[in-house]
């Protein structure tokens, strides 16, 4: 009899253990996701959470690992909170390992390649995921009760992230002469340079994009007195045209060299010396119009410079020169 009782108690203990362990394991699971991606030369940037939609249990956490030389944040705001940029943060920034339950905002500082940020989710809910550097970069985290069955496992998310990354970085439906356009050969008799291109993509959870952070045919040869026009063809990512000193604040145009406004609204500067510092400020498309919000003004997507003296002038995008977005203007005297 004693042995049967002992056996019964042992079986009961094992049964109880088998019931309790799964819930504990699920409640403590750490999921993995990626934060941006890039091509080997850093010229193509996937501006995306990879994947940008996950279903997890309450008590679980997610660790995002940055795969990009461009900066991104992992940020969660409370409902109705105004959007801040990455210099302001949440306001402020949170340590990795923080938790978010919808009552207090959370934000990583700007992260670069290899850095990680972990957030735990103690309360069920559907939470919007945003990047404060790229307002169009969004996602959703669905936090379900422990009793709920999750639709996907980590292997599924790994495969989805890889598919989305490859889809963005190997985009081939436009700009098929991209390799030629990204080369540093001279563009003669055409005084126009494309300052980056991009395409938007959408998933069930929000937006992501491909950005080519290069001056396409950015080495250009002109004659003294000619004017060059730079045009940003990226729908979401801003760029700058910067000659000389790198500005402390890249947002406004430089004030040390007079800037005029052409009749079509494009800022127009003049360079007459290698000592001149000319900075376009941010050139980018107009934000999308929204119901109940004042109409957006025309986008500032172009910048012009007239060169009055011969010489070789190097320039950069002050936001993305670390990724290789640089160019050169060769001004001939004849």
Q: Could you characterize what this model shows?
A:
With 334 residues, the chain is mainly beta. It has 2 domains: 29-169, Immunoglobulin-like (Sandwich); 178-332, Immunoglobulin-like (Sandwich). 14% of the residues lie in helices and 36% in strands. The protein contains 3 helices and 22 strands. It has helices at 2-27, 154-169, 178-181, and strands at residues 30-38, 44-50, 53-57, 61-66, 75-76, 98-99, 106-107, 116-120, 125-130, 138-144, 187-188, 192-203, 206-216, 219-223, 227-233, 242-243, 259-261, 267-271, 278-279, 302-307, 311-316, 326-332. The strands form 4 sheets. It has an 11-stranded mixed β-sheet with strand order 6-8-4-1-2-13-12-15-20-18-17, covered by helices on one side. It starts with a helix and ends with a strand. Mean pLDDT is 86; it is low at 1-27 and 175-189.
């Amino acid at each position: 009899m004693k042995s049967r009782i002992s056996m019964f108690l042992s079986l009961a203990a094992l049964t109880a253990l088998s019931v309790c362990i799964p819930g504990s394991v699920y409640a403590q699971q750490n999921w993995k996701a990626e934060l941006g991606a890039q091509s080997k030369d850093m010229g193509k940037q996937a501006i995306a959470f990879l994947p940008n939609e996950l279903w997890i249990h309450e008590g679980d956490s997610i660790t995002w690992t940055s795969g990009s030389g461009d900066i991104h944040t992992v940020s969660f705001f409370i409902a109705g909170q105004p959007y801040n940029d990455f210099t302001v943060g949440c306001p402020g920034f949170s340590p990795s390992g923080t938790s978010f339950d919808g009552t207090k905002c959370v934000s990583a500082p700007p992260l670069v390649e290899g850095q990680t940020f972990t957030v735990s989710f103690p309360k069920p809910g559907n939470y919007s995921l945003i990047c404060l550097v790229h307002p169009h970069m969004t996602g959703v985290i669905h936090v379900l009760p422990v009793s709920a069955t999750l639709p996907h496992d980590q292997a599924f998310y790994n495969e989805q992230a890889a598919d989305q990354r490859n889809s963005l970085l190997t985009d081939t439906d436009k700009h098929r002469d991209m390799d030629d356009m990204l080369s540093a050969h001279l563009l003669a008799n055409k005084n126009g340079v494309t300052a980056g291109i991009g395409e938007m993509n959408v998933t069930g959870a929000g937006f992501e994009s491909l950005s080519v952070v290069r001056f396409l045919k950015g080495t250009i040869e002109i004659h003294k007195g000619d004017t060059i026009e730079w045009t940003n063809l990226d729908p979401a990512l801003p760029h700058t045209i910067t000659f000389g000193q790198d500005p402390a604040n890249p947002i406004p145009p430089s004030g040390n060299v007079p800037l005029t406004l052409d009749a079509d609204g494009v800022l127009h500067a003049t360079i007459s010396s290698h000592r001149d510092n000319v900075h376009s400020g941010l050139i980018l498309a107009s934000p999308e119009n929204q119901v109940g919000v004042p109409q957006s003004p025309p986008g500032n997507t172009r910048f012009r410079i007239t060169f009055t003296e011969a010489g070789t002038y190097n320039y950069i995008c002050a936001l993305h020169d670390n990724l290789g977005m640089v160019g050169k203007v060769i001004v001939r005297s004849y």
